Amino acid sequence: MYKILFILLLFLINPLFIFAKTSITVTHPIEKYFIEKIASKNIYVKVVFDRTRKFNLKNKDLVESLASNQYYFKLNLEDEKLIEEKFKSINKDLKVIDISKNIEKLRTKTNKENPYIWFDPILVREIAKNIYEELARIRYYDRHVLKENYEKFLNEIDEVYLHIKRRLDNSEVYGFFVFNNQLDYFAKRFRLNIYHKENRYLNISEVPNIINLSEKEHIKHIVIEKNSLYAIGQSISGHINGKIVEVDIYSKNWKSNLYVFTRQISNF
User: Is the pTM of this model over 0.85?
Assistant: First the structure.
């Protein structure tokens, strides 16, 4: 009897069981960055839109490989809806974790939730909290390491926020033109004016108003998404002697990405 109990006990505390890796799939590199800041060595993350290869929902082998992981962490982005649906059709046991839960979102003009919360460092603290709580639940045996990593990351986030705030407070930037809603949280957090334009070429009849607005509000920057049509930004910059700034919202280099963007809009 005691021998049987001893064998069962060994099985329950088998190191191969305790230290087996937890596999997570995310959509974009930025999500992987946040998870890896907190994760232990026993957590492995795959990215759907990995920069080293192309992703297509019709690629059966790739989709099945990504869907086979235990968890799918998401930020509730528009492009994650179809991916989640496809993954769950393949893996019925897949657990979907929303790392943007309980974070109050801004609304777009069409009254949709704006999901681009990670360009606000203060809200990244909330993302980190969600990730930490989920990982500590999933990887209970790693909870001490996870907590230590989490607290270090919070300190780093605070440093990022203070750096950006000091830089912008000491600059003469008041706002910028954009063609989407990706930087709304950044503008709100750091009290910058953001002027949304349609993602199209500027009509000649619109030029006088753009020039007047630029002069009145001291706007000299046009922010475009990386790999988007550069000429659309030029259709504004050419009339106001402005500077085009590219930003990669999904970049894994979250900290340096924010620093570079801040430097670009605070200089002219």
Answer: yes
